[in-house]
């Protein structure tokens, strides 16, 4: 009996030691997770909240999306709803923001929600502990559960600390290339202006070399023609003087002059080399080597030849 007692006592002590080790290990890993989550989140400047969570049927149903935005701001984050007017630095570098989501875990008698944050590469940066509620009414249950999930974020003491690896992404090829296109157009316009100046100089030089000769013209008696009712010509054709440059946009092109100023926007049709002119009841089509814009002015059908460089 004495031996059995000693054996049981030793086993009990061993189990207590193992339990203590497991508790300490859990606390250690929790502290590591806490520090890692804090340092990771501090590198991001903004939080984007979606207008609708996947487990709900409507946008901002039960005001959960608005509540999530409020709770992020409450804990010191710069949060904004998806589709809002983003700050300039975020427009240039979307990797400054984390995209948030609220996920629902299955449960028979409890509502369980957790907050998840992903970076611009769709990698999970942070997942909160579950927030739970036993309420039966959906609005109350979701409200309590999401507030419970956000409690952990409040303990992280978030403070934005720029990370060079993230801020440097603003100059990567993923940045919109609109400034590059504008520079290319400006360069082409400068070349065109230089060519025009050269032609002007040649024209002035030619005038100086060739003396102007005025031919003798005999006076012609003035003839008053009979008044006739002229019928409107069916087509009036004119030619534009400036060159327009085509820049590709969604479903078509925008035509800019040398200013550069957008003169027309044209939309593609089901026919090759046939476009609809935006904001004008007109059609643009290719005729031979010319681009012709055709439209009605009153009862008069007009055609305007445009010089377009694609």
Brief synopsis:
The protein has about 300 residues and is of the alpha+beta class.
Protein described:
The structure is a single chain. The chain is elongated and about 135 Å long. The protein folds into two domains: 25-171, no CATH class; 177-194 and 235-310, no CATH class. It has helices at residues 2-41, 64-74, 88-92, 138-154, 164-167, 178-209, and strands spanning 46-49, 78-81, 97-105, 111-118, 124-127, 131-133, 235-249, 252-256, 262-268, 274-277, 282-287, 290-297, 300-309. The chain has a seven-stranded mixed barrel. Strands 1, 2, 3, 4, 5 and 6 form a six-stranded mixed beta sheet that branches. A hairpin with a 5-residue loop joins β9 (262-268) and β10. It is built from six helices and 13 strands. The N and C termini lie far apart (101 Å). The chain is of the alpha+beta class and 310 residues long.
């Amino acid at each position: 009996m004495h031996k059995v007692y000693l054996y049981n006592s030793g086993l009990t002590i061993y189990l207590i030691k193992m339990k203590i080790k497991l508790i300490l290990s859990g606390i250690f890993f929790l502290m590591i997770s806490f520090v890692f989550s804090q340092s990771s989140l501090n590198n991001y400047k903004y939080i984007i909240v979606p207008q609708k969570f996947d487990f709900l049927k409507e946008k901002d149903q039960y005001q959960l999306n608005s509540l999530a935005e409020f709770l992020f701001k409450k804990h010191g984050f710069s949060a904004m709803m998806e589709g809002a007017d983003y700050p300039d630095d975020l427009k240039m570098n979307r990797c400054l923001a984390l995209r948030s989501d609220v996920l629902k875990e299955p449960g028979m008698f409890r509502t369980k929600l957790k907050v998840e944050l992903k970076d611009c590469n769709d990698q999970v940066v942070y997942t909160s502990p579950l927030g739970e509620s036993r309420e039966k009414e959906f609005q109350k249950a979701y409200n309590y559960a999401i507030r419970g999930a956000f409690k952990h974020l409040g303990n992280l003491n978030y403070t934005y600390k720029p990370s060079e690896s993230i801020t440097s992404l603003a100059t990567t090829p993923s940045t919109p290339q609109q400034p590059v296109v504008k520079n290319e157009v400006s360069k082409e316009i400068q070349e065109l202006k230089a060519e025009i100046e050269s032609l002007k100089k040649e024209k002035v030089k030619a005038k100086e070399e060739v003396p102007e000769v005025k031919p003798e013209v005999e006076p012609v008696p003035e003839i008053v023609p009979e008044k006739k009712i002229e019928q409107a010509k069916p087509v009036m054709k004119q030619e534009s003087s400036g060159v327009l440059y085509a820049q590709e946009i969604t479903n078509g092109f925008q035509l800019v002059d040398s200013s550069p100023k957008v003169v027309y926007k044209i939309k593609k049709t089901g026919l090759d080399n046939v476009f609809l002119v935006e904001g004008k009841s007109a059609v643009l089509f290719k005729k031979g080597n010319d681009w012709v814009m055709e439209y009605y002015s009153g009862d008069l059908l007009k055609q305007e030849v445009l010089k377009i460089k694609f």
